[in-house]
Amino acid sequence: MIKKPKSLKIIQADPLNPRDDHIVATSQIIKNGGVIVFPTQYLYGLGADALNAKAVDRVFEIKQRSYHKPLLVLIPHRKDLTKLVQHVSSAAVHIMNCFWPGAVTLIFKAKDTLPANLTANTDKVGIRMPQHPVALALSKAVGGPLTATSANITGDSACSTVSDIDPRISDKVDLILDAGPLKGGIGSTVVDVTVDPPIILREGAIPAKDIFFVLESSQMR
After folding, report:
1. Secondary structure class of 165 (helix, strand, coil)
2. Which of 38, 68, 110, 121 has the fewest beta carbons under 10 Å from its own?
3. Residue 1 lies inside a defined structural domain of this protein
């Protein structure tokens, strides 16, 4: 674990305009293999360098997550997909055009260069472009994909405030970016775009009917 002065354990981040020095300092921790807690759109998540297998392992250990369950990742730009996935279908493009950045996670065929633990050997990876200003700024500063699984022990409720985070999580991460209360809820809608037509694996913040409407409309053009 990367050790830091205790006074730096929690940073109060402006949820709308995060300070550059806070983002840079946090991104450096991630680049060095650290794990942080940070705000996603609806819930607090565990952030690490998704391309660093050791850092990904730490996320699994901290969360007490089964290694058979892959982790979704955040990217700052759509162009970053070319480094992570084998193919981007036209259906995926239509969904991204309408809902990215936002609360839709797309499941793609993963490139074999991704850490096996990240994908849980499924050869697939879930990717989302974040809308929350802090998450977006952080992903841009890191310059690569971030893990974004919820910051809770597996089986427990996800957290929309830092004060609700289990000490078993907060005591083991290297830094907490506290951006105040988040919206809460059930997280992003997960869509598998490796098949045609795409399949809704989990209905979340974006209703399934909205996804289907976009896909049906694209076929009528």
Report:
1. coil
2. 68
3. no
